[in-house]
Design goal:
2 helices, six-stranded mixed sheet, 2 domains, SH3 type barrels, alpha+beta, 6 strands
Length: 95
């Protein structure tokens, strides 16, 4: 019986240790983008304000009259500015 209790405790502890890791992964996935932040291209040109940030951390903004989604993987915080590695031409091509 003591072995069963020990095994149950170890299994519970292992299961609980996974939860913080998953929470940290979501925080890590949290984008540098924040609603209302101005997005800049890599060469410093202003694009538009972030309208919404998805759960994946992608920035959604209204650009040239349409809603576009800029992938979180292209976003960085460069000197306090939200910057994408995409060019203006690449942004225009997004849907």
């Amino acid at each position: 019986m003591k072995k069963l209790v020990s095994i149950a405790l170890i299994a519970s502890a292992a299961a609980l240790s996974v939860v913080p890791a998953a929470a940290m992964a979501q925080e890590a996935a949290a984008s540098v983008a924040q609603r209302g932040s101005m997005l800049y291209t890599a060469d410093g040109k202003r694009v538009a304000n972030v309208y919404r940030v998805t759960q994946e951390g992608d920035a959604q903004l209204i650009y040239r009259g349409k809603m576009i989604t800029v992938a979180a993987s292209t976003l960085t915080d460069a000197g306090g500015k939200l910057t994408t590695s995409l060019t203006a031409d690449e942004l225009r091509a997004l849907r």
